[in-house]
Amino acid sequence: MLKVLEATKETQGQRASDFTGVPEGELVRFHFQCDSDTEPDGGCGCARSMTGMQTLKATTTFKVAEIEMGVDEYIHVTRESYLKSGFPDSANRVIKWSLEVISFCLDLDPGVIVELRGDLQLRTRLGKAVR
Q1: Residues facing 52 on adjacent strands
Q2: What's the gap between Cα 117 and its chain centre?
Q3: Strand pairing report for 2-7 and 58-59
Q4: Is this prediction's pTM over 0.85?
Q5: CA of 15: how far to CAs of 20, 63, 124, in Å?
Q6: In the beta sheet, which residues pair with residue 59?
Q7: How far is it between the farthest Cα atoms of the chain?
Q8: Distance of alpha carbon 101 from its chain centroid, rounded?
Q9: Distance between CA atoms of 73 and 50, rounded to whole angstroms?
Q10: Are 104 and 65 in contact (CB under 8 A)?
Q11: What is the arithmetic mean of pLDDT over 1-28?
Q12: Which of 113, 126, 118 is nearest to 10 (CA)?
């Protein structure tokens, strides 16, 4: 079992800048950020979202999920998603980003809501982590 991030609609709309085009439960990955989106709540949204590995659409809300997959298989699935979206295969970047997700989720309980605000962080509501 491996803990990674999947799309969720839970807490979607908590921030005025939230959006989603990714179905509930789809695995998400980091994507490249444009030069114009330097603030999490500004620009196009790439500084606050992750991409669904199948739909290649973005979402601002994700949660920790346990999946029946090993690290190597997860990295492979992630690499395939980048290739599907037209990005050149950069094994080092795919491995780095995949391990970043795995490392972040390692000590978190499944169901914990996460957001990207420059870095991955727990989404909070009134100062408490959302579970």
Answers
A1: 28
A2: 11
A3: unpaired
A4: yes
A5: 12, 16, 11
A6: 20, 50
A7: 41
A8: 8
A9: 20
A10: no
A11: 96
A12: 113
How far apart (Å, rounded) are the C-alpha atoms in residues 80 and 73? 10
Q: Are 56 and 48 in contact (CB under 8 A)?
A: no
Q: What is the pLDDT of residues 31-68, one digit of tens each?
A: 877 777 677 777 788 889 999 999 999 999 999 999 99
Q: What is the DSSP letter of 109?
A: P
pLDDT tops 80 at residue 108: yes
Tokens 């780095």 belong to residue: 96
| Boundaries of every domain in the chain | 2-129
Tokens standing for residue 74:
């997860």
Whole-angstrom distance, CA of residue 45 vs CA of residue 60: 8
Residue 127: which region, alpha, beta or left (left: phi > 0; alpha: psi -120 to 50)? left
Phi, psi (rounded to 5 degrees) for 11: 65, 5
Structure tokens belonging to residue 88: 């050149």
Rounded Cα gap, residues 106 and 34, in angstroms: 29
Tokens of 80: 């395939």
